Amino acid sequence: MKFGVLVSGAGTNLQALLDADLAPAAIAIVISNRPSVPALARAERAGVPAIVVDHKAFPTREAFEDAVHVELAARGVEAIVLAGFMRVLTASFVARYPLRIVNTHPSLLPAFPGVDAPAQAIAYGTKVAGVTVHFVDASLDGGPIIAQVAVPVLPADDTRALHARIQREEHRLLPDVVRRLAAGELSCEGRIVVGRAE
């Protein structure tokens, strides 16, 4: 199964995918909505096609997504990974790839959706944080949960230390979910993911 990876920044989750044996998945293209981000260089070093579709160049969110879809379709992409992609996708875009878009989020959803989840966890005083890989729907970090791993919040943690420990789990979990999706091992019954990768 051919995957497109959408990125916006450093690309550490992309690097985890590039370093892993994803078969039967293969990364066909990496698309960034921001120019000159480190994720693009990571893809290029790995020999994976990488392009910029700058969201600022389009008058509407839908026009931007149409341009992204054109690039994905041109490479036969069947599924998408959001790897630090900092744009909320519209329902119409998600409908083009039903249960074939996955996202990783640095919290145990539904706790702490949106940006800066590790900082939210520390500010709230929670004792357990973590990572969630989920299918994407039209909500913000609200799609069906595929896999989660808990990460303790230690008394000395600041946001950076907690996020680093969460990322180690993200980098292990995300490639496994991608492999299982490509192998046809994941499906949904309502909000319940069958074949949960844990």
Order of secondary-structure elements: EHEHEHEHEHEEHEE
Task: Count the domains.
Answer: 2
Classify the helix fraction into a percent range.
25-40%
Question: What is the CA-atom radius of gyration, in angstroms?
Answer: 16 Å
Largest sheet: 7 strands, mixed
Helical stretch tally: 6
- Annotation, overall tally of beta strands: 9
Task: Return the average pLDDT rounded to an integer.
Answer: 96
- Please state how the strands of the largest beta sheet are arranged side by side: 3-2-1-4-5-6-7
Shape: globular
Cα end-to-end separation: 21 Å
CATH architecture descriptor name of the largest domain: 3-Layer(aba) Sandwich
Derived from helix and strand composition plus strand pairing, the structural class reads: alpha/beta
Strand composition percent: 15-25%
The level 1 CATH classification of the largest domain is Alpha Beta
CATH homologous superfamily placement of the largest domain:
Formyl transferase, N-terminal domain
Annotated CATH topology of the largest domain: Rossmann fold
Low confidence ranges: none
Please provide a written account of the structure.
The protein is of the alpha/beta class and 198 residues long. It is built from six helices and nine strands; from the N terminus they run E-H-E-H-E-H-E-H-E-H-E-E-H-E-E. The protein has helices at 12-19, 38-45, 61-74, 91-96, 117-124, 159-182, and strands spanning 2-7, 26-32, 50-52, 79-82, 101-105, 128-135, 145-152, 187-189, 192-194. Strand 2, helix 2 and strand 3 form a beta-alpha-beta unit. Helix 1 (12-19) packs across helix 6 (159-182).
